[in-house]
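Can't paste images in this forum, so I'm doing it all in text. The chain is below; anyone willing to post the predicted structure tokens underneath?
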Amino acid sequence: MVDPLGGSVGEFVTHLLEYIIVALEVVIAIFIIVIVSRTLFDLIKTYVVGFSRKESQQQQHQLYNQQIVTRMLRGLLYSLDFLIAVDILKTIMTPSQTELLYFIVIVVIRIMLSWAMSKELEKK
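Text version of the structure:
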């Protein structure tokens, strides 16, 4: 099937998927930067405020810090899940043995990270 502009539909879909993959990676990177920045800002803010607090309020301060870190871990878990989806799209686009091996290694590492973060969230 030929596109009226001179290219095939398959090439159009391939280029469209490449743009979608790049856009998803950029959005996920921005999401991770925002999560980490917000977490660092909140932690610094609580430590600055925490220096002026009394000992009785330190326990509440620790609980708030745990909530901040838990929020960051959840955001990173979601990001890892979306990155796995992007890797699946990349592997579908270039189904070579090298890409498949690369995909398997990256997915295993990300699943292990997700599992470790899930366990950390369960503790809290």
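The chain has one domain: 9-123. DSSP finds three helices and no strands in the chain.
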